[in-house]
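Changelog-adjacent note: as of this version, every example in the card shows the full chain rather than a window. The one below runs 279 residues end to end.
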Amino acid sequence: MADYDVLKQFVTFYKTGTLRETAEKLHISQPTLTRNMQKLESEFNVPLFQRTKNSISLNETGFLAAEDAEMLLKQMDNMLQRAREFDRKNRTIMLGACTPVHVPELIRRITDINPTATISSEVKKVSQLLEGIKNGTYNIILLPFCPEGDDLFYKKWGEEHLSFLLPKRHRFARRKSLNVSEMNGENMLLFQDIGFWHDLVVEKMPDSRFLVQTERYTFMELIENSTMPVFTTDYVLNANPCTAPIGSRVTVPISDPEFNVTYYLVCKKEDSKKIIKRL
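Full-length structure tokens:
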């Protein structure tokens, strides 16, 4: 049977009506197109064209064959698209995280065990992550707690502890730890892109005003040149000890349990061997 390209030439001829326009549209030579139409006609083993000395056109059988060929091409295109989408989906790992700082390490670890996979990641609210892992939006998610659900598999990823980064002359600078209620009401610097931490500190310090920054450089400059308290975590300080301008500041851990989290990697149980158990 004729291959895809020849059928496409046949259908294009059916739409344009001339060999010249078909050849121009498909960027092939007219003699090649003529030979392919002759070959197609011989494979059908019935006349498809009316020929005169200077022209060629479809006969009634040719019109019928061209209409069926057009439907067949659409089915083939749909088949190819579905197969490619299925392959892409199987080779793409969708990662959802509650905080951005752990995403680079997760991507590196996933890439190590799946070097041919494409990894797509995004930071979302916890409720969206839980919904996404259940409906198939994500293959794996990072949560700040151990989830419930018989259909879910989870594995501890690590811990992170939030602290206040205070100027050395702050009234609480000598404290070994602080409760957030003690700092509630103070003006605070806050970086926007910190995932679930953002909503947590705003909720737990309702009387504070937050100077929210979206650019990392500006945020770091304000930390270095202002006296406003700011948040940090042990993970950030350990991962980037040279980038945190804390020479004139001290770190005071937050004692509230919800600010000391254990992270869990979560996926559906049927995916656990393929993803999480290998991390």
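Structural remarks: The longest helix spans residues 60-91.
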